[in-house]
Design a protein that fits this description.
Strand content: 5-15%
Number of strands: 14
Helix content: 40-55%
Radius of gyration: 21 Å
Distance between the termini: 20 Å
CATH class of the largest domain: Alpha Beta
CATH topology of the largest domain: Aspartate Aminotransferase, domain 2
Number of domains: 2
Bound molecules: pyridoxal-5'-phosphate
CATH superfamily of the largest domain: Type I PLP-dependent aspartate aminotransferase-like (Major domain)
CATH architecture of the largest domain: 3-Layer(aba) Sandwich
Length: 369
């Protein structure tokens, strides 16, 4: 079986480094806060382009707390525009902050927010935009920021899948109010559990969020306001610190493997390959192709030992959880069609050339079967 993601291979390749970091953290009982937490916060800010970082317990809370801080708690009627072609957490974050999600369609080439659809969806109730940088490729941040500036809107980027990606040379969070990442285990930078972070150029925002995720402590048992607990664990920070050092090499390995697939599947009729926009540095969190008869092809691939998957089979606007928002499948035709045709192929830095060739052969035979 060739898995979609192979976390064991990553552990085995750097076992000594991981074990040392982990047992050092355990030995020092630095479970909350501590040197690894502080060190990771600084090192991540440097990696993301020199702004400020607030670490959180997960990406969902990073998004929700950032929106809430920038807009104030909502009453469920004011709107945040986002996409439906995303993991459900994007939508949950908007609702958790007290806002109403409004979905717009995606660009059929990049799978990210369609800027024309965004411009058309802005109303007097719109307060913010939450673009999603899906599969490792950023949305058109120039177009999105132009719409935001025209209407005075806040922009919080969902960069959960895009660690190190860039648009016109700028990483997420460098042109908007903030960008949020997730460190859930299978992400390009994944913890051994949950984790997330907010990255922003606004030092006051980061400082406020650092307080909010830690009970708004003024001192150990004195609290400035009623906040929450959404801290990143010391153990996760210790692991993430090790992984961050390897991330640039892992990203290049992902890009190389994406190129292998492109070559191996270039002349394969019936397979639509992903497109990297000219302005984009794509970090290939996922390598997503489109095919006809998707469910049959996926079944054949899985049957033949290829751990392919779908990200995501049901768009947010068609989820039972979002029924109350009143969308029909056809309201977002590109999103709906893409959700019926996509397949994610195995992609991870340790994927061997042999494995990539096996996957490509299996795809060829499944689409022509
Ligand atoms: C696009 C997207 N947004 C948000 C999240 C939420 O992150 P987390 O699982 O860390 O809460 C994820 C990942 O799970 C995601 O893929």
């Amino acid at each position: 079986m060739i898995p979609l993601v192979d976390l064991k291979a990553q552990y085995q390749a750097h076992k000594d480094e991981f074990d040392r970091a982990l047992f050092d953290c355990i030995g020092n009982t630095r479970f909350i806060g501590g040197a690894d937490h502080a060190g990771f916060e600084t090192e991540l800010a440097e990696f993301l382009g020199g702004g400020h970082v607030a670490l959180t317990s997960c990406g969902t809370h990073a998004l929700a707390l950032t929106l809430s801080e920038l807009l104030g708690p909502g009453n469920g009627t004011e709107e945040v525009i986002t996409v439906s072609h995303t993991f459900i957490a994007t939508v949950e974050a908007i609702v958790l902050a007290g806002y109403k999600p409004v979905f717009v369609d995606i660009d059929p080439v990049t799978y990210c927010m369609d800027v024309g659809a965004l411009a058309a969806a802005v109303t007097a109730r719109t307060r913010a935009i939450m673009p999603v940088h899906l599969y490792g490729q950023m949305a058109d941040m120039d177009g999105i920021m132009a719409v935001a500036q025209r209407h005075g809107l806040v922009v919080v980027e969902d960069a959960a899948q895009a660690h190190g990606a860039a648009w016109n040379g700028k990483q997420a969070g460098l042109t908007s109010h903030a960008a949020c990442v997730s460190f859930s285990p299978a992400k390009n930078l994944g913890a051994w559990g949950d984790g997330g972070a907010v990255f922003t150029r606004d030092g006051d925002l980061a400082a406020k969020l650092r307080k909010t995720v830690d009970h708004a402590r003024l001192s150990k048992y004195e609290h400035g306001y009623l906040a929450t607990n959404s801290r990143l664990d010391g153990l996760q920070a210790a692991i993430l610190r090790v992984k961050l050092r390897h991330l640039p090499v892992w990203t290049r390995a992902r890009q190389e493997r994406a190129d292998w697939y492109r070559d191996l599947l270039a002349d394969c009729d019936g397979v639509q390959l992903p497109v990297c926009a000219e302005a984009a540095v794509h970090v290939y969190h996922l390598f997503v192709i489109q095919v006809d008869r998707r469910d049959e092809v996926l079944k054949t691939l899985n049957h033949n030992g290829v751990g392919a998957g779908i990200h995501y089979p049901i768009p947010a606007h068609e989820q039972p959880a979002c029924r109350h928002l009143g969308y029909a499948a056809g309201d977002l035709p590109v999103t709906h069609e893409v959700s019926q045709r996509i397949i994610s192929l195995p992609l991870f830095p340790e994927l061997s050339r042999d494995q990539a060739e096996t996957v490509a052969r299996a795809v060829r035979s499944a689409v022509t079967a």
